[in-house]
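Continuing the series of single-chain predictions for the mutant panel. This is the parent chain; the variants come on the following pages.
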Amino acid sequence: MNRSVTMTIGMMVCFVLTGVGKGLAEDAAAGESLFNGQDLAGWRADVPELDKNPAARNPFVVRDGMLVSLGTPGGHLITDAVYQDYRLLVEYHFAAKPGNCGVLVHASKPRALYGMFPQSIEVQMQSGEAGDFWCIKEDIAVPDMEQRRGPKENWGVDGDKQRRILNLTDGSEKPPGQWNTLVIECVGHEIKVWVNGAVVNHGFDCTATKGQIALQSEGSEVEFRKLELTPISELSDGGD
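Parent structure:
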């Protein structure tokens, strides 16, 4: 085989391998859907009411290809897997009257607060308050803490302490009934949140860096049409 043929074959092999490598890298960075559109595989429900009343309804169902939190009885739908350093894209709306719900990140010990809430940081979805942080046996800091959390002596992670940290914006949510996009990025000890493209919270010094992800059933019916998780190594500037 002459030199020119050898060089041509070598270049073709290099091109193919480069293309394969690029494809693998793109696949590794692609988002993973946490909901398969058919059932609740990969999740488990933790609903205290079902402990004493097995005939009570499970508040988490699949309907018309969407994951639905019926709102009652109260509880959480928790991933089987533990996640760290990721971007979570959530598309949701209140199916009926707007009310309360939330996405919990870095979840660990179940029923750690009030015999209901797992140890975690909650990213609030309550209508009009989307993007607030709630500290549930875990803690996080933000700029202007006293303005957004209240007097320092009242801060804490238990039931009688100031656990709510207000978000940064008003009016980021869509009108009732319309779909909202919630993006949560967790990298190291930081958590950053966007609602419909607007940065609504950015916390640091979080006391947890990994855990399960949980959805709430807390009084209002919510439909989720997308729950997509992408591994990341640093926080981004945009939340689209």
